[in-house]
């Protein structure tokens, strides 16, 4: 799984100066070709202190066109980053297709640092590295080219470099107390590094170990590796037989397939008087609970899915009067923009993950990948089938961060939907809500119903269960949904049984 560059190899200054102009020219031409490609390039620079990660980042910044490349040097997380799942800041920094992202201090720094401080044992480190593997596997499955370079230095060479930096007043600031401590714990660091490399050098994203004693050799070696890997990938893309993705085969579903949704009692209802009394009670309860959650830095993430005209917007309008306007945001999800299509499909949802104590309400969500994209053929079967695991992993990270995650499916029957469509057409200020596509989607009701059933079965987990809402009666649906959120908050705050 490892690719090891020639250890101990050196390059004279003369040889280096001779190679650099041609390498730079080829890298720039590669970037020009990459602009039109359907994949991003992610370059990680990792390794021990003094190995020159920052120098290498500066070199690549110098050699590459900055218009099509961004560099990130992650340090200790900010307050806003600490209040979100760990990978939030990495998702936000991912490059778009056709672009290059350079990372120093990447998603490897955190687990290695915790293990060095004995805040993780080997089992905890392995669990963290498995999350890294899952992350990289998702990116590669979506097309990303990940190049991981481990810059290697011996203990003696590292000590020599740190002493040289400290001896010069102009560079002494670059040596931190952490660097000195790492040198004292070299043997432990070596074991942690070896374990990290062993557990995360995968077939889809192997580590390339680069001897960094000689900076000339290091620079040329890494630059050449990047050039050849991207060129190879571009060549594969240009020569592969590109066939239009086949539409999913006809499912031959019955008129009403047997699903979990069939078992919902859509006849349930509330009288207007009962509804008004219940709404006042649960809105008041929600107000108290969300304020207490905010004071205790507990966030909420709400996902609203359901049939067209099932009442998602009406439900949101009954929730927000109970909320502090400073604490929530509503994210309406439509067809992805060009920028969003240039990234992994989860990228646009990670961007809006709330800080601790805040609330994000998604009006439609990441489940579009396994619903509309599946049924309409916008995603290949391989893409939407692997999305179940990717979504579960995403939601597990939200839950681990302490968020209250509510997932609602608002269910109505075809007759009720048609009735609501007709009502929208008759009311001027609601006519914008109805389109020809809404009617066309009704023709594929059985396929959508089967997709919903699969979605609920595969993503209703212990940490993120679905709440199925009988929504033929809007009053009943609103009360059930608000009550369910209140009960989840009470449980999280330790107020329930």
UniProtKB/TrEMBL annotation:
InterPro entries: P-loop_NTPase, PolyP_AMP_Tfrase, PPK2-related. GO terms for molecular function: polyphosphate:AMP phosphotransferase activity. It holds the Pfam family PPK2. It comes from the Bacteria. Residues 11-234, 270-492 form the Polyphosphate kinase-2-related domain. SUPFAM superfamilies: P-loop containing nucleoside triphosphate hydrolases (SSF52540). One of its GO terms (biological process) is polyphosphate metabolic process. PANTHER family: POLYPHOSPHATE:AMP PHOSPHOTRANSFERASE, POLYPHOSPHATE:AMP PHOSPHOTRANSFERASE-RELATED. This is Polyphosphate:AMP phosphotransferase.
